[in-house]
Amino acid sequence: MLTDLPNVLTISRIVAIPIVVLFAAWGSPQTDALACLLFILAGVTDYFDGKLARSRHQMSDFGRMFDSIADKLLVGACLMVLAGLGHMPYFSLWPAIVILCREILVSGMREYLAERRASLPVTRLAKWKTGFQMTAIGFLLAGDGTGMLLGMPWLPVALIGAVLLWIAAGLTLITGWDYLTTGLRHVNLS
């Protein structure tokens, strides 16, 4: 079970977190590029672990639980290291806060609803949110130094990351509201 490829991919995403954080904290254009590359690879495993689990009929409780945890740990750790290092340009700390708050809200609701045998399925818009969010974090990890490293000093890598993070935050608010209203239907308010 733990050695099934989908679960190995999920675990690899968790193992990648301290390495991405270390590369980002190192602070050179080369290590920023490596942090971005490793983050992208970790993000790709998120796509493939579920797809492989379904196609190989290797879906497991471990995978269902840790897939979501790995995603939230990866995103949360990267947003925190970016904020801690002061790499959140163009007021992008605010959308990062919105994203983290929504993740905590949805996780809490899913836990509560699981006790009531209700689910909070992932919506198509939430998948778009994740795509924008992951792309934004990749650009923010890369930073402007990576543009220079690639011979494109004119490329506003950090600005692109910040804009994408603001878009992700907008989608985060919409999907968070949708999830909240769906979840509240299962709550007895009396």
UniProtKB/TrEMBL annotation:
Keywords, in A-Z order: Lipid biosynthesis, Lipid metabolism, Membrane, Phospholipid biosynthesis, Phospholipid metabolism, Transferase, Transmembrane, Transmembrane helix
PROSITE patterns: CDP_ALCOHOL_P_TRANSF
Topology in the lipid bilayer: Multi-pass membrane protein
Source species, domain of life: Bacteria
Catalytic reactions of this protein: a CDP-1,2-diacyl-sn-glycerol + sn-glycerol 3-phosphate = a 1,2-diacyl-sn-glycero-3-phospho-(1'-sn-glycero-3'-phosphate) + CMP + H(+)
Enzymatic class: transferase
This protein's pathway: Phospholipid metabolism; phosphatidylglycerol biosynthesis; phosphatidylglycerol from CDP-diacylglycerol: step 1/2; Lipid metabolism
Biological-process GO terms, alphabetical: glycerophospholipid biosynthetic process
InterPro entries: CDP-alcohol_PTase-I (IPR050324), CDP-OH_P_trans (IPR000462), CDP-OH_PTrfase_TM_dom (IPR043130), CDP_ALCOHOL_P_TRANSF_CS (IPR048254), Phosphatidylglycerol_P_synth (IPR004570)
Gene3D superfamilies per UniProt: 1.20.120.1760
GO MF term (any one): CDP-diacylglycerol-glycerol-3-phosphate 3-phosphatidyltransferase activity
Pfam families: CDP-OH_P_transf (PF01066)
Enzyme Commission identifier(s): 2.7.8.5
An example Gene Ontology CC term for this record: membrane
Subcellular location: Membrane
Family: Belongs to the CDP-alcohol phosphatidyltransferase class-I family.
PANTHER family reported for this sequence: CDP-DIACYLGLYCEROL--GLYCEROL-3-PHOSPHATE 3-PHOSPHATIDYLTRANSFERASE 1, CHLOROPLASTIC, CDP-DIACYLGLYCEROL--GLYCEROL-3-PHOSPHATE 3-PHOSPHATIDYLTRANSFERASE-RELATED
Name this protein carries in UniProt: CDP-diacylglycerol--glycerol-3-phosphate 3-phosphatidyltransferase
Taxonomic placement: Bacteria, Pseudomonadati, Pseudomonadota, Alphaproteobacteria, Acetobacterales
